[in-house]
Amino acid sequence: MLKNYLKIAWRNLLKKKAYSFINIFGLGLGMACCFMIFMFVQDELSYDTYHEKGDRIYRLTHGSLPSEDQPENAGANPFWVWNNAPVGPALKSYFPEVDKVVQFSGSSDILLTDGENSYQEEGVFFMDSTAFDVFSWKVVKGDPKNALTAPYSMVMTESTAKRYFGNEDPIGKTMKGSDSPGRSNAGDYTVTAVIEDVPANSHFKFNMLLSLSTFRQYRPEVFDWWGYADFYTYFLVNENFDQTAFEQKIPDFLASRQDDPLYTIRVEQMKDFYLRTEADRQPGETGSLSNIYVFSVIGIFILVIAMINFMNLSTARSMERAKEVGIRKSVGAGRKHLVFQFLGESIIIVFLAMLASIIFVSSSLPLMNSITGKELEFTRFISWQTVPTLVGILFVVGILAGSYPAFVLSGFRPVQILKGISVTNSSGVSLRKGLVVFQFSLSIILIAGTIIVYNQMNHLLDKDMGFDKEQMLVLDYNYDEIVNNRSSALKSELESNPAILSTAFSRSVPGGYFPNAGTTIQNADGEMKTEGQAIFQVGLDFITHFDMELVAGRSYSRDFPSDSTSALVVNEAAARQYGFANPADIVGKKFDQWGRAGEVIGVVKDFNFISLHRTIEPLTLPFEAYASRFLSLKVKSDNLQKTIAEVEEVWKSIAPHRPFLYSFLDEDFNKQYLADFKFRKIFTTFSVLAILIASLGLFGLATYTAEIRTKEIGIRKVLGAEVSSIVTLLSKDFIKLVLVAIVLATPVTWYAMNKWLEGFAYKVEIGWWVYLLAGIVAVIVAMATISSQAVRAAMLNPVRSLKSE
After folding, report:
1. What is the DSSP string of 31-92?
2. Which residue range forms the structural domain that includes residue 648?
3. Mean pLDDT rounded to a whole number for the chain
4. Are residues 32 and 91 in the same domain?
C-alpha cells in the first residue's frame, strides 16, 4: 500500500508539472528564506560563545547615581564600559569569588616601522598578562603565560603576522613602535606569541595585543586615578558566583576606595555583551536584539506565507482529484487512509521543497554574506544536532501545509462526486479567502515597512547636520608630534594649491571619537559649576572651515593671541547645561577645563557631531594647537584624484616618516549607520521575496476560481459577455480581499514601525501616503498575478467548457 501511495504521488507530480513546480519552488523558496534568516539570527546569538569559560566571564560598567539636587535624572546618566584602572586590582582583593581580572586599554592605532617601511596598524589593545587565563584565544606560537608579561611584548594574530613577516617565524622579531617621543606606545616591540585570528563572532576584535606593562611604564600615575577613564575591566568568577549577592556588596566596596559618592559600578555577563548591553563606550561592535526579533518574525511570516500557498495550490487541484477520491471511497478506502495518503504526498512535496531550499541557500549564501557583512557557511549549521531539527521541520511543515487539503479531499462524498454534483463548500472558500487576506496583510506590512525604512535611511543621509561634510578630505596621522610641530608649514603648503579651499587641524572629526570630561563654568548665579560633556579639541580655523554657525560671541582668532590658552567655545546645548536659555548670556563667563582657565568667547549652533540615533549633546570646543590627530581639507570636486596625488606629494615632503592615510568625511560619518543600512538591505530583500511568494498564493486561488467557474464563464460568453467584463468579474473579489488586507495591516504597520523608529532621535513622520502607496503596490501585484489567469479563462473557447452539457 505504501508503495502504491508513493507511485500515485509521483504520478500526480509528473501529471501537473506546472503546479508541482510552483508548489515545490514556492515552498522551497520560503524555507530557504527562513533558513537563511535562521542562520543570520544564530550567528548574532553566537557572539562570544567560543570562550570556554564564557559563562563565568563578567565585566564592569561604570556610571553615576542621581544627585540630590537632580533626582529627576535618576537612571538617565549613561553607564560606560570604558573607565578607570584602580577598580580592577581592588575588585580582585575585595571579592573572593573573583578568580582573575583582565584589564585593557581602548582600541588604538600604532605606527610600526620595519626598516624603511612604516605602517599605521589599527585595532591594537594594551592588555593584561591574564588575558589568556580568561579568554579562549588559541595560541599557535609562543607561551601564553608569559606572552604579555614583559614591557614591549607584542602578540599578533596569524593574518597580521603573515602580513608583516610572510612565512617567516615571527617569534622574537622586533619592530619599532611610534616615533612620537613621550607616547606610551613608543619603543622596540618583540613578538612573543601568535594567536589564531579572533573569530568573527567576537564582540571586540584586534590585530595586535601589547602588554599593559608597557602602558604602565610610561603612565604609572593613571593606574591610581579613579576619575580617569582609559581601561576596560573584565573578570573571571568561580563556580559559586552569585551575581545578586555580588551586587549587594558593591556600595561597601566602593565606599572605602574612592571619594565620589555618586560613582557606582554594575556587572554584565558575557552572554549580554553583544545584544543586551545598554552601556556606552564599548570596546567593539554591538548588535540589536530588536532587529533579531524583526528578522525572526519576517522568517516566520515567509514560512507561513509559503505554507498557505501550498494549501491554496493543493486546494485548487482538489476538483481534479475528486473522482479519484470518489472511486477510492466506493471500493472501500477509509477516510483515515485517504488522509494518510494526502499527508504523505504533502510530506513528499515538502521533502522535495527542502532539497530545493538547500540548493537555494547554497547558491544564495555569497549574496547573503555581502548583504549582511558576515561569513555565513552552510556546513557550519549542519550537524548531528540540526539533522533531527530539519527532520522535525519536514514533518511539521508537511502536516501543517497539507492538513487542510487532506481533510477536504478525504471528506468528499463518493455518491455526489460520481453523480457530478458540486462538492464545494462555503467554509472552504471562506478559509481560502481568509488565508489570502492574511498573506496580503503580511505583504502590505512588509511593503509599508520597506518604504518607511528607506525614508528613514534617506533622512539620515540628507538631514542638515549643522556642518559641511561634503568634499572634505581627512588625513589621519594619529597625533604624531612631528606632524603637529610642522602643522603651520603643512597648512601653508597645502592651501597654496588652488584646488584646496581651506584646511583645519583637530583631535577628532564629526562622527569620530570624543573624550568626555568635567568642565567648570560660571553659571547664571555667578557660581562655578562643574558638568560633564564631550570635548572636541580644535585648531584655530576649524569652526569657519566646517561652516559652523556662530549664534553668539566669536570664534578663535589670530587677532587674539590669548585664545590659545584662555578662551573657550561651546555649543548651544552646553550653554543650556549651565542654565543659560539665551546662548549670548554665557559669553564672558569664566571657565576652568583641563588646566586651562579663562572666558567663554563664543557659542556655535548645535550640530550633529554624533549619530542621529542620539540627540545633540553638550559639547565644548577648546583650542588645541599641538594635540591634533586629523587634518581636514575642503577640496574642489574637479579632478579629485589629481588633487589627492598633489596632497600626497606635499605630505611626503613634510612628513615622509608617516604613511599617507586619507578618507572622505561623509563616508566616514555614514559608517555609523552601517548596521542600519544592513538592516535595510536584509529587510528589503526578504520583503520582496515574501511578496513574491504571496503572489504565488494568489495565483493559486485565481487558478482555483477560474477552474470552478469555467462553465459559468462559457455560458456568459455564449450570452455575449465581453472579455473585459469577465476579467472584471474574476478580479473584483480578489481586489476586495486586498482592500480588507490593507485595512487590517495599516494599524499593525503603524505600531510596529513607530516602535522601530524610537531607536532614532531624529526620525521621519509616517504619513498616510505610506499606507496608500503600500496598498497601491499590493493592488498592482495582485492585479498582475490575477490578470494572467483571468484573461486566460475569459479567452477560453466556450465550446470546450460546455461540450459535456
Report:
1. HHHHHHHHHHHHHHHTTTTT-TTGGGEEEEEEEEPPPTT-GGGTTTSPPBSEE-STHHHHHH
2. 478-660
3. 84
4. no
